[in-house]
Structure formats: C-alpha cells, structure tokens
C-alpha cells in the first residue's frame, strides 16, 4: 500500500507518510512513556489533588485527548491549560504535564517555569529544547518524542498517550495501557482501509464532498469535542483554509440560533460534518438528528462520520485519523503542500522581536 502522497500532490515534509505512521507512533509513545516511568522519578500519587496539562497548538491537542479520556475515570480533576499563566490552584499537590514538541513554545515554557517555582511536580513530554532543560534542572522526568516527526501536529499520538501511561503507572488510571492497545489496533485497521481504497476511501470521499466549502465540524460530548477541534485545526494547517468546530449539547444553546438568517449565503459556504461515536449521551444523539433537520436547508450539505473501535480512546483516535486524511486530501485537491505553515513562523518571529 502506498503511504506517500498521491502522484502529483506536493508534500515536501512527508505529512502523508507521517499520518500513515500514526499507529506505530502511538505504540512507540506508550512504550517510551512506560520506560521512563519504570526508571523512577515520577511523583507519588499520594497527596495529589489535581492534574493540569499545559501545551499549545499541535502539542497541546494531546492534552485535550488526555482530559477527554481521563476526566470520566480519574479520581482527580483534570484541567487543560493553554496560556502563559497557571490557575491559582496549581501548587505542590498538583501534577503538571507540560507538552511541547519543539521544547521552545513560549507559553508552555512560561507556565512550566511557574509550576516549578510553585513547587508543583512536573512531567515533561517533549522533543528537547528549553523545556527539556527546565525539566532536568528541576529533576523532573522527561518523556522524549521523536524529533524526526515533521511537525507538532503530526506527533499527536506520542503527545497524547504519554500522560495516560504515566497516570496508569501512578495507579490513578487503571486500564489506560489497554485502551492504548485498542487504539493502535483500530488505527492500524483504519489506516490500512484508507490506504487500500485510495481515491475511493472514506477520507477522500468526504474531502470531495467538502470541496471548496468551509467545514463546520460538530462533535458530541468530550470525545466529539476533541475530535471536532482536531479536524478544524488540521483543515486550517494542512490545506490552509477556514474551518470551525462546535460540540453538542452546548451548540443547541447558542450556535443553532445563528442559522436563522443569511441562508442564501450559508448554503453556498458551509458543509457540516457530524462526528459520531458510541459514547454519546442518548440526548446528544437526539440533538444531532434535531439540529440536522433544522439546518439542512441552510448549509451546502451535512456529512456524518462514525467512529469505530473498542473503547473511547480507540474511537477518538479513529475520528482523528479520518480527519487527518481528509485534511490531506483537501490539500491535494488544491495542489497545496500540507506541511509548511509560513504564517505561524512569521508570527513566532514577530513575537520574538524585541
């Protein structure tokens, strides 16, 4: 099966191959985290009162996966931080995960440095950089991420599963490694299915149906919310086009009212993609049907994508992989190189200028 970009599609950074390697990346990321945990240095679980996971962009999306999976099961609250500052509650009894693929993300460095100053136990997931240096100076464990991965967003597997494995080793999240194994199995099956089908795959068909409209991705509950966010970000960064996401049931309390006007414009612009999974609340499932009926005439089309796999992590990663391939196919349709993100580089350079 061909894992590289379709013939004629630009891919200077190897994003197609990196996407095909996601099952192996998840497996390796879990094994690496287990090895680091076995070497010692993790804080004791006793006395912990909360968990915060800090990170931005393609690195930080792994923390959203962590929260979606761990929050329903963990006996401690799990918070995701995406800012320079830490919440006031963070202190010596708060376990802090700091994730940065490059190790030089300024927001993550600022928050992690503050965590160290407050005496919070720190676990770092990174490819190196100043964040790794900070961790070593604080005697905090570092879970390394393969820096040959072309971009942070392509490292979602390793960035996501490392904290889950650490939490199981600490005795806080039993069964996490089993969930990772199930995710690897589903990712492998979905990857092979997509590659074998080529232009007739689910991802390719969804990309053609989206075409040059703007995708609005709806998810259900915590799992669907993260899946929809991932789709949105991948469409932003790979084909470089607008995309938006929202989640049930919250969108039924606000966003749905916004379809009451401008239907002549919105039906030309927007395609709604419903991401469905087996762990939705029954009322959330009903809301999808009701909302689809309400907005069907004011959007270009509504596409449903349903997850497969054993367990919530497997189904979330299934949605993620489908969306990653949809974004790649959207790039190929426009003849765009999915890897380079020059506007983000320009922004970082501008921020670094004093």
Q: What structural class is derived from the secondary structure elements?
A: alpha/beta
* Radius of gyration of CA atoms, rounded to a whole number: 20 Å
> The CATH topology of the largest domain, please?
Rossmann fold
Low-confidence stretches: none
Number of helices: 13
Per CATH, the superfamily of the largest domain is Glucose-6-phosphate isomerase like protein, domain 1
User: Hey, roughly how much beta strand do the residues contain?
Assistant: 5-15%
**Number of separate domains:** 2
The strand count comes to 9
The quaternary state of the protein chains shown equals: single chain
The CATH class of the largest domain, by name, is Alpha Beta
**Largest sheet: number of strands, sense, barrel closure:** 5 strands, parallel
CATH architecture of the largest domain: 3-Layer(aba) Sandwich
Mean pLDDT: 97
- Please bin the fraction of helical residues: 40-55%
CA-based shape: globular
The CA-CA distance between the termini, in Å, is 49 Å
H/E element order: HHEHEEHEHEHHHEHEHEHEHH
Strand order of the largest sheet: 2-1-3-4-5
């Amino acid at each position: 099966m061909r894992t590289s970009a379709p013939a004629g599609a630009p891919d200077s950074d190897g994003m197609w191959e990196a996407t095909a390697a996601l099952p192996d990346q998840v497996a390796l990321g879990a094994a690496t985290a287990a090895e680091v945990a076995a070497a010692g240095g993790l804080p004791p679980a006793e006395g912990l009162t909360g968990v915060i996971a800090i990170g931005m962009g393609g690195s930080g999306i792994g923390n959203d996966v962590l929260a979606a999976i761990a929050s329903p099961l963990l006996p401690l609250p799990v918070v995701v931080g995406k800012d320079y500052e830490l919440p006031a509650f963070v202190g010596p009894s708060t376990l802090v995960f700091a994730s940065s693929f490059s190790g030089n993300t300024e927001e993550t460095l600022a928050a992690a440095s503050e965590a160290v100053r407050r005496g919070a136990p720190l676990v770092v997931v990174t490819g190196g950089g100043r964040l790794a240096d900070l961790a070593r100076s604080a005697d905090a464990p570092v879970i390394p991420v393969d820096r040959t991965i072309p971009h942070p967003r392509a490292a979602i597997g390793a960035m996501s599963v490392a904290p889950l494995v650490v939490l199981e080793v600490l005795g806080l999240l039993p069964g996490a490694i089993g969930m990772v194994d199930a995710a690897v199995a589903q990712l492998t099956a979905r990857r092979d299915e997509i590659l074998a089908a080529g232009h007739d795959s689910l991802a390719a068909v969804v990309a053609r149906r989206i075409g040059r409209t703007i995708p609005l991705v709806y998810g259900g509950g915590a799992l669907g919310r993260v899946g929809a966010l991932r789709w949105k970000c991948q469409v932003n960064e790979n084909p470089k086009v607008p995309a938006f996401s929202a989640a049930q049931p919250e969108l039924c309390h606000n966003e749905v009212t916004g379809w009451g006007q401008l239907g002549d414009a919105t039906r030309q612009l927007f395609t709604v993609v419903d991401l469905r999974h087996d762990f939705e609340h029954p009322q959330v499932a009903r809301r999808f049907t009701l909302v689809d009926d309400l907005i069907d005439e004011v959007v270009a089309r509504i596409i449903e994508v349903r997850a497969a796999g054993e367990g919530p992590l497997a189904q979330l990663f299934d949605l993620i992989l489908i969306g990653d391939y949809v974004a790649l196919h959207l790039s190929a349709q426009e003849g765009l190189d999915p890897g380079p993100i020059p506007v983000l580089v320009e922004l970082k350079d501008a921020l670094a200028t004093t």
